[in-house]
Structure formats: structure tokens, C-alpha cells
Amino acid sequence: xxALARKxxxxxxLVEGEFAFTSEDFARVAAxxxxxxxxxxxxxxxxxxYSRLAxxxxxxxxxxxxxxxxxxxxxxxxxxxxxxMAALTTNVTRFFREPHHFDxxxxxxxxxxxxxxxxxxxxxxxxxxxxSGEEPYSLALTLLAALPEIGDLDVRxxxxxxxxxxxxxxxxxxxDKEAVAAIPPAMRRWLERAEGDQWGMGQAVRxxxxxxxxxxxxxxxxxxxFQAIFCRNVAIYFDDPTQERLWGRFxxxxxxxxxxxxxxxxxxxxxxFEPDGLTTYRLRxxx
Length: 287
Fold this sequence. Notes:
CATH architecture of the largest domain: 3-Layer(aba) Sandwich
Shape: globular
Structural class: alpha/beta
Number of domains: 2
């Protein structure tokens, strides 16, 4: 293909709409998102990228995707670059999603950990990619159901997400009645009535969970190791080499024989883990 032909093809609209959106625009957006978050955008996501970012162009009063790409690539566009990442990342979650993981946690992971905690030990669980908080709060409710006085022990849940806006919502811990309907009735005693038809997480739940913004592709400041890590339906957005690096970092962050819970369409590809149930893995013993 000649240089002229390549230029002509690059200028063709990739998605028909209010704003011109070319393959070059898509490539620039995809490269920035990958650089910031490790997320891989295949060409099949072009329509999704257009629909989500066209809203940002309208809000900012920009005339083209070329203008938008120039903005988010500049130092003056750092805030909008974070907004772009938030717009392009999917936050689909609910209380007790993939319930077999919480059953496994309750029946297999927690019993020895509770014994350890009662003896004065430190227990830490990480919800990596916590979205709007339903996952870590489901973990906290599972802990409370197993041991109502667990808040008095050294047991805590770290909840992290790359999106500061969604972290703020998760920290607020308020949900509508449709969302909390997925919480088992026996566990709802740890909820509090909020405004209207909304419910908030009670103090016993909140004290177990700490929320922080964290990019899984960046440095991890946590010094201690975890007995269990939940990272579900996050790695599907990464390519294979990035997934492999992430699994290796999780292995380093777990205590010996610690467990990793992943999404239903994900698979751990490194030999440091062995299967331990449905989409559940255990760090292999080095002994």
C-alpha cells in the first residue's frame, strides 16, 4: 500500500456519527489507555469508544476527536485523561456476584484464618478492581456472618480501583433497594436505612473495609501480604502478556498457599498457582 493510500484509509471515518472518528483517532485513544491502565482495546471496541467519548467531546465543547486526542495527550489534559479512562472502563458488579466464590471463602478459606485471627494473627483480603463497592462489602458481610465480633480482631479488607470517581461512590456505601435485594436476608441486619429507598452499609461493615485508588499496572504500596485476593473480571481487559505479569504480581502478594479468586471467563496461566475450585486458585507450596 502506498503512503497516499494509507493516509486516505486513516482519514476514513471508523464510526459514522456526529464527530469524525478515524482509525488513527482510535489508535491514539487505545495507546493512551494501554499506557495508563494496561487495558487492551481491540478494533471491535471502536463503536463503544466512540459512543462513550463523544459525550466527553460535547461536555468539553470540542469539535473533533483529533482535538480531544491532542488534549488528553498534553499536560493540560491530565484531568480529562483520567475522565477518559473512567469512561472507557466498565463497572459492572453486584452484591454476591458469582456466589460460589463467597461459598468457597466461607467454607474453605475462612475457617483457618479465623483461628489465626483469634490467636492474634493478622488477616488481610484484597478486592482488586472493587468498582462501586459491592464486592468488598459482600466480603465483609461474609466475614461478619462467620464471626460477628470480627471487627475486634486484626482482620481487614483492602478495596482498590483505578477510577477515583467510582472509589468515592464505593466509600459512600449507599445502594438502592434493588441492589441490596441480592444480599441474603440474614446479612441485612448489618445495613442501615438511608434516604428514601436506599440502604447504607452499617458501621460494623465499614470498619472492615478500606478503599484506595490504585492502578494495577503501577506500583503497589502495600507492604504486607494477603491471605486471599479477589480480582474478578478485570484481567479480561488485558492481553495475555499483561495478564501473565499480573498473575505473577498477585503470587508475590499472597502468603504461602494463599488463594486467588478470578472471573468466570478468566484463567490463570502461570504454574505458581494450582486450581482450587471453580475459578479459584491456590499458590503452590514451594516446599
